Amino acid sequence: MGKTANAIFAFLFILFAGLQYNDPDPVLWISIYLYATIICIMAYRNKFYPIMNIIGILMYITYALLLFFDADGVVSWATKHQAENIASTMKAEQPWIEETREFGGLIILITVMFLNYLKGKKQAASEIA
Predict the structure, then answer these.
(1) pLDDT tens-digit profile of 41-92?
(2) DSSP characters for the chain?
(3) Where are the domains of the chain?
């Protein structure tokens, strides 16, 4: 992932962290977004620490799987609630909507972390050669 993309995602993730103040679990989500912000800022500065990306990816995948299979998670939203519109209102009044939105956020975070991991591996390989 390039410098511009990392700058954009760092900005977005810090913005998303700030919007979590009224979330039911704000400390968790602020931490999740700030961790990714740090990774993006470091990548913007061409500093790659693959183990930090792997840790983030593993944490985010674990939480995404919990949200996916939870009783009020993504599977429930898709099957029992007919994939109800998750963007109709900003306040998620139903737990399956909240968990599906959180799952979507984790997929974005996982993707960004993975792309930075690949970039870091490529940079490390070119430094060795």
Answers:
(1) 999 999 988 999 999 999 999 999 998 888 777 667 667 666 666 666 556 6
(2) --HHHHHHHHHHHHHHHHGGGGSSSHHHHHHHHHHHHHHHHHHHTT---HHHHHHHHHHHHHHHHHHHHSTTSHHHHHHTSTT--SSS-SS--SHHHHHHHHHHHHHHHHHHHHHHHHHHHHHHHHHH-
(3) 3-128
